[in-house]
Design goal:
By secondary structure, this protein is of the alpha+beta class. The chain folds into three domains: 1-299, Alpha-D-Glucose-1,6-Bisphosphate, Chain A, domain 3; 307-445, 2-Layer Sandwich (TATA-Binding Protein); 454-517, no CATH class. The chain has helices spanning 28-39, 48-53, 62-72, 98-104, 141-147, 178-195, 214-221, 234-246, 274-290, 295-306, 320-336, 364-369, 415-440, 458-473, 480-491, 498-510, 514-517, and strands spanning 2-3, 13-14, 84-88, 108-111, 152-156, 163-169, 172-176, 204-208, 225-230, 253-258, 262-264, 309-317, 341-342, 345-352, 373-377, 383-392, 398-407.
């Protein structure tokens, strides 16, 4: 399958599936790579029309769509439907999966007009990044959802396997990250299965290791098994489902979840699918609305009961050949050296996923997938556990860092204070870990750099601070048009929506945003 997925328009790629419907895992992916790189001598080309004449082209027709809808809708666990939903497919294929599935089940769905045309340019998405993980991807749909007085806003990435959710709560819109969506889906599903008498010794949830440990805690306290230590990638969840099916235990499968907004329920598929997740999210929200509550209320109740678990993902993006060397250097240091602490946070255990079975590794792709380091950090007051996971991205030139700080159960009325404490601890831990890595690169990274758009390459973050004074100096340029033109030229290296990527850092120093400081048109 060729897909833009959740990346920039320039980053189209392919996904290769096996006979079970899951993406290839090691060593099978390596076998395919070797076949293509070592045994393909030439690429033969044929005109599309000629291929049609020879019967080599098969067009996917409405029958497949109908079969899909018939397969996904039975995941429904509730008849609650009184909910107003605005849906944004982010210019992608959710128009043929998520939207018809919700409508088939009787939900009130309104499409966001500006992002409901199929377009690989993603022109109406901030930064042109149609990724539900990125809160800015909701920018254009949110005013429409507010205007329509929607209860929830759902979006999906262009190949409709990732889901994003925003909730109208106390007259404000609140973004749910991938872990929070997974927590809600877990709690909802277990409650429904328990009420229907469907929980048994085969009941199981599956998640990747970097996905919030609160899912495992909820499962265990409800006597549900959880396979929770998988490597990053939904393909590993699919493989576990295949094993369940081989042992005639697939009926016990409840949910597969990964922190990057990917979920699967039901046995109709072997990859994450936003349509099924949208159904459960909508049903849960509809039931809560009947009680005068929202998904945020439900999430807060879960946090109070089990302890607030704060998960946060960030990255250091390092481009080019030099960047690859820097990523390797960071991983090599963290792997080979004894890391006693990150600033004031003492490391109690380091887990290297290169170790352990199978040895030797199955393939080069296996080695790459297992290039993961987990640091358990000594607890501090108000915490139950702290963890940092570091790994290079498998698809982009960056090193990813997952932070998890888990608090303790508390009274619901005390949750706000507990969350503030846990988030403050995570921020301090994040800065200490990232500064540790920046020092390995010989980079003196300013504290305000953490206010820049997190997906900017490191070199762009550093370049911004080199030109920040030039930006401020534009205030003395008398002609407004010339001031705007010079600003555009200075920020051109940042790509789409450049001011939004740096404005928080500018505001921290100059007490106002760039547009206001330079007296520019706020609509630009």
């Amino acid at each position: 399958m060729f897909s833009a997925s959740h990346n920039l328009p320039t980053d189209n790629g392919k996904k290769v599936y096996d006979e079970h419907g899951g993406q290839l895992i090691p060593p099978h992916d390596q076998i395919l790579v070797d076949e293509v790189t070592q045994n393909v001598a030439d690429i033969q080309v044929m005109d599309y029309e000629e291929a049609q004449k020879r019967g080599l082209i098969e067009v996917v027709n409405a029958e497949v769509d109908q079969a899909y809808i018939a397969a996904v809708c039975p995941v429904s666990l509730s008849r609650a439907r009184e909910l107003k939903i605005v849906y944004s497919p982010l210019h992608g294929t959710g128009l043929t999966s998520v939207d018809p599935a919700l409508r088939q089940l009787g939900f009130d769905v309104m499409l966001h007009p500006a992002t409901s045309n199929l377009s690989g340019a993603f022109e109406n998405v901030t930064f042109n990044i149609p990724n539900p993980e990125v809160v800015e991807s909701f920018d254009t749909a949110l005013p429409f959802a507010a205007e329509q007085k929607a209860d929830i806003l759902i979006s999906t990435d262009p190949d409709a396997d990732r889901i994003g959710v925003m909730v109208r709560h106390d007259h404000q819109w609140q973004f749910l990250n991938g872990n929070e969506i997974g927590i809600l889906l877990t709690h909802y599903a277990i409650a429904k299965h328990k009420a229907d008498g469907r929980l048994n010794q085969d009941s199981v949830l599956i998640k990747t290791d970097v996905t919030t440990s609160l899912i495992q805690k909820i499962a265990e306290e409800n006597k549900v098994a959880c396979i929770g230590d998988l490597l990053v990638g939904f393909k590993y969840i699919a493989d576990e489902m295949n094993k369940l099916e081989q042992h005639n235990k697939i009926k016990g499968f409840i949910l597969g979840a990964e922190e990057s907004h990917g979920y699967l329920m039901g046995n109709y598929c072997r990859d994450k699918d936003a349509a099924a997740a949208a159904i459960w999210i909508a049903e849960n929200a509809a039931e809560l609305k009947q009680q005068g509550r929202t998904l945020v209320d439900a999430l807060n109740q879960i946090y109070a009961q089990y302890g607030y678990c704060h998960n946060y993902l960030t990255e250091i993006r390092l481009l080019g050949a030099e960047g690859m060397e820097q990523i390797l250097a960071i991983m090599q240091h963290l792997r080979e050296e004894e890391v006693k602490s990150f600033g004031e946070f003492a490391v109690t255990e380091k887990i290297d996923r290169w170790q352990g079975p199978p040895q030797p590794h199955l393939s080069a792709t296996d080695t790459s997938s297992r290039d993961v380091l987990i640091f358990h950090v000594d607890t501090v007051p108000d915490t139950h556990s702290l963890r940092v996971t570091v790994r290079p991205s498998g698809t982009e030139p960056k090193i990813k860092m997952y932070f998890e700080v888990c608090g303790r159960p508390c009274r619901l009325e005390d949750l706000g204070t507990a969350q503030e404490k846990i988030i403050a601890i995570r921020k301090k831990l994040e800065k200490n870990v990232m500064q540790y890595c920046y020092q390995l690169l010989g980079v003196d990274f300013p504290d305000r750099g953490f206010l820049l758009f997190w997906q900017l390459p490191l070199r762009d973050k550093l370049k911004y601070f080199e030109i920040e004074a030039e930006i401020a100096a534009l205030k003395t340029t008398a002609v407004l048009a010339e001031r705007q033109a010079k600003l555009d030229e200075l920020l051109e290296f940042l790509g789409a929506n450049p001011i939004e990527k740096v404005d928080h850092a500018f505001r921290e120093k100059y007490q106002t945003g760039i547009r206001q400081y330079l007296n520019l048109d706020p609509g630009r």
